[in-house]
């Protein structure tokens, strides 16, 4: 059973496009979980304490940022997926294209999973912030600091993904 | 981890709302204002500035303590039903479990009313509104427990708890108390198993709260049975098994014959030992008061965790305690007997 032959049989297009797909979908999953967690708590807490309604939308914005990171990487990767002619390509070009395919897949996974957990985290913290704010207004700013740290981890994912895709290119002139 | 992120889908809004209700629970300053009242009208005025608002505004006729109590309970019911009607899935079932304990109290109240030949309407008026069920009026036809079960209870949610109670004896004073405790034991154990089935933080929080409830009932049953005809074996059958006293403590309690021996059993558990000792503050607190205090402490702690159903249970219990406090203060005010007005149990700072 030759794993190498199996892997070689997969086109780099498969890996690259999977990277795009996973990158955006996992990011959106994380953002969605974050938004409904925080949003439900803001709505619930806002019934008896209406003053929290506007301030706590910041938490929703942090969750949304996570989805934006995902779409940035998806656009960056998908615009780099360029046609190359497998039959006439030299070994060097072939290798460069395969490398690009794997890099794009990895970048998609990186940004996807980082944003997934970041979104869940920001959601839970944002929910706590809304409910704590409803009870005691001075707590909101303190908990916001925790949220800022939580959203930073999503940013790390984007940075690493950008680094992964920085020097790789697909196409007939790739090296 | 992800199961707790899924909590907010169905129950996130209701949890936020329940915490909003909890924020409206009277604080120390509110109680201070209430204890300063001279008349019940003053009390009504002070309650207007709290979460209770104008709940007494439409009262025609003179204000009495029983009217106040009725309105307080009504407000709790309205809030509870508002939450319950929006609940789905496990949460809906959980909230139904909360109402079963009131149903049990209502059933026993109606039975004892029948025994003393009270008119059914009067008894129905005294029932706790949170524990209503459709067959309540039909209870007066029952003379034995089998009739009670076949005619009335088999269609209510209390049916599975009645399995241990059915026999052919006629209902009398002793039996009714035994029925109450047997039903409650089955209910507590069922509730505890249900919470374990839900798992996660709910199981953790409810386990603690229900374990204390079970142990407290075991202690009270033991102490109240001294000097009555209740046999030790019968007493043992009434102890709920979901507490920390199970199994060793319950064995010892079953053998106890006086309060000193009960105290010995309590010595094995740090929290219970404290309650049986004299706390040396000079205030004359009964054992029940100390149990209430501990219950309040546990219920307030339930709010420290998020994404679990325990907050709904604790909200109901804390609101109940608040109603008891307000009625205590109202009684002291209306009877002008202010000596023990401070004996309410503070809930929040």
Automatic annotation (TrEMBL), chain A:
All residue ranges annotated as the V-ATPase proteolipid subunit C-like domain in the record: 18-77, 105-163
Entry-linked SUPFAM superfamilies: F1F0 ATP synthase subunit C (SSF81333)
Membrane-traversing stretches: 14-36, 57-84, 104-132, 139-163
Membrane topology: Multi-pass membrane protein
Origin superkingdom: Eukaryota
Molecular-function annotations in GO: proton-transporting ATPase activity, rotational mechanism
Record keywords: Hydrogen ion transport, Ion transport, Membrane, Transmembrane, Transmembrane helix, Transport
Subcellular location: Membrane
GO CC annotations, alphabetized: proton-transporting V-type ATPase, V0 domain
Function: Proton-conducting pore forming of the V0 complex of vacuolar(H+)-ATPase (V-ATPase), a multisubunit enzyme composed of a peripheral complex (V1) that hydrolyzes ATP and a membrane integral complex (V0) that translocates protons. V-ATPase is responsible for acidifying and maintaining the pH of intracellular compartments and in some cell types, is targeted to the plasma membrane, where it is responsible for acidifying the extracellular environment.
Assembly: V-ATPase is a heteromultimeric enzyme made up of two complexes: the ATP-hydrolytic V1 complex and the proton translocation V0 complex. The V1 complex consists of three catalytic AB heterodimers that form a heterohexamer, three peripheral stalks each consisting of EG heterodimers, one central rotor including subunits D and F, and the regulatory subunits C and H. The proton translocation complex V0 consists of the proton transport subunit a, a ring of proteolipid subunits c9c'', rotary subunit d, subunits e and f, and the accessory subunits.
Similarity-based family: Belongs to the V-ATPase proteolipid subunit family.
Name of the molecule in the record: V-type proton ATPase 21 kDa proteolipid subunit c''
Organism: Macrostomum lignano
TrEMBL record, chain B:
Protein name: V-type proton ATPase subunit
GO cellular component: proton-transporting V-type ATPase, V0 domain
Matching Pfam families: vATP-synt_AC39
Record-linked Gene3D superfamilies: ATP synthase (C/AC39) subunit, domain 3 (1.10.132.50), V-type ATP synthase subunit C domain (1.20.1690.10)
InterPro entries: ATPase_csu/dsu_sf, ATPase_V0-cplx_csu/dsu, ATPase_V0-cplx_dsu, V-type_ATPase_csu/dsu, V-type_ATPase_csu/dsu_dom_3
GO molecular function: proton-transporting ATPase activity, rotational mechanism
Lineage top rank: taxon: Eukaryota
Family statement: Belongs to the V-ATPase V0D/AC39 subunit family.
Protein's job: Subunit of the V0 complex of vacuolar(H+)-ATPase (V-ATPase), a multisubunit enzyme composed of a peripheral complex (V1) that hydrolyzes ATP and a membrane integral complex (V0) that translocates protons. V-ATPase is responsible for acidifying and maintaining the pH of intracellular compartments and in some cell types, is targeted to the plasma membrane, where it is responsible for acidifying the extracellular environment. May play a role in coupling of proton transport and ATP hydrolysis. Regulator of osteoclast fusion and bone formation.
Keywords: Hydrogen ion transport, Ion transport, Transport
Subunit and interaction comment: V-ATPase is a heteromultimeric enzyme made up of two complexes: the ATP-hydrolytic V1 complex and the proton translocation V0 complex. The V1 complex consists of three catalytic AB heterodimers that form a heterohexamer, three peripheral stalks each consisting of EG heterodimers, one central rotor including subunits D and F, and the regulatory subunits C and H. The proton translocation complex V0 consists of the proton transport subunit a, a ring of proteolipid subunits c9c'', rotary subunit d, subunits e and f, and the accessory subunits ATP6AP1/Ac45 and ATP6AP2/PRR.
Source taxonomy: Eukaryota, Metazoa, Spiralia, Lophotrochozoa, Platyhelminthes
PANTHER family assigned: VACUOLAR ATP SYNTHASE SUBUNIT AC39
């Amino acid at each position: 059973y030759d794993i190498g032959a199996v892997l070689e049989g997969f086109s780099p297009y498969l890996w690259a496009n999977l990277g795009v797909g996973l990158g955006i979908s996992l990011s959106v999953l994380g953002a969605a979980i974050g938004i409904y967690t925080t949003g439900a708590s803001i709505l619930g807490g806002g019934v008896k304490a209406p003053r929290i309604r506007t301030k706590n939308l910041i938490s929703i914005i942090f969750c949304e940022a996570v989805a934006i990171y995902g779409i940035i990487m998806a656009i960056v990767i998908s615009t780099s997926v360029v046609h190359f002619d497998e039959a006439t390509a030299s070994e060097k070009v072939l290798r460069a294209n395969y490398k690009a395919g794997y890099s794009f897949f990895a970048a998609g996974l990186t940004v996807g999973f980082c944003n997934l957990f970041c979104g869940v985290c920001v959601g839970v913290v944002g929910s706590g912030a809304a409910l704590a704010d409803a009870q005691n207004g001075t707590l909101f700013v303190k908990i916001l600091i925790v949220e800022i740290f939580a959203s930073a981890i999503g940013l790390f994912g984007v940075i690493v993904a950008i680094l992964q895709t920085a020097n790789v290119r697909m196409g007939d002139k790739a090296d | 981890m992800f199961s707790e992120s899924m909590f907010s889908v169905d129950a996130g809004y209701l949890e936020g709302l329940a915490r909003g209700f909890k924020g409206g629970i009277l604080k120390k300053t509110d109680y201070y204002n209430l204890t300063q009242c001279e008349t019940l009208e003053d009390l009504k005025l002070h309650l207007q500035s709290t979460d209770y608002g104008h709940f007494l505004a439409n009262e025609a006729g003179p204000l009495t303590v029983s009217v106040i109590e009725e309105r307080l309970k009504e407000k709790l019911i309205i809030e509870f039903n508002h939450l319950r009607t929006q609940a789905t899935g496990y949460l809906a079932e959980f909230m139904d479990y909360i109402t079963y304990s009131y149903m049990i109290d209502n059933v026993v109240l109606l039975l004892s009313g029948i025994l003393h030949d009270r008119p059914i309407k009067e008894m129905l008026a005294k029932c706790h509104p949170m524990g209503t069920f459709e067959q309540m009026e039909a209870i007066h036809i029952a003379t034995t427990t089998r009739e009670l079960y076949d005619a009335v209870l088999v269609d209510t949610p209390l049916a599975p708890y009645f399995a241990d109670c059915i026999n052919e004896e006629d209902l009398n004073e002793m039996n009714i108390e035994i029925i109450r405790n047997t039903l409650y034991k089955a209910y507590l154990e069922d509730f505890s198993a249900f919470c374990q089935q839900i798992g996660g933080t709910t199981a953790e929080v409810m386990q603690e709260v229900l374990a204390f409830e079970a142990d407290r009932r075991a202690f009270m049953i033991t102490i109240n049975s001294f000097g009555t005809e209740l046999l030790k074996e019968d007493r043992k059958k009434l102890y709920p098994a979901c507490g920390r006293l199970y199994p060793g403590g319950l064995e010892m309690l079953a053998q106890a014959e006086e309060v000193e021996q009960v105290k010995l059993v309590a010595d094995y558990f740090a929290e219970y030992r404290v309650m049986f000792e004299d706390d040396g503050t000079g205030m004359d607190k009964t054992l029940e008061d100390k149990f209430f205090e501990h219950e309040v402490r546990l219920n307030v702690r339930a709010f420290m965790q998020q994404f679990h159903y325990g907050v709904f249970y604790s909200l109901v219990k804390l609101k109940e305690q608040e109603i008891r406090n307000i009625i205590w203060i109202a009684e002291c005010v209306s009877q002008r007997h202010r000596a023990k007005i401070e004996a309410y149990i503070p809930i929040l700072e």
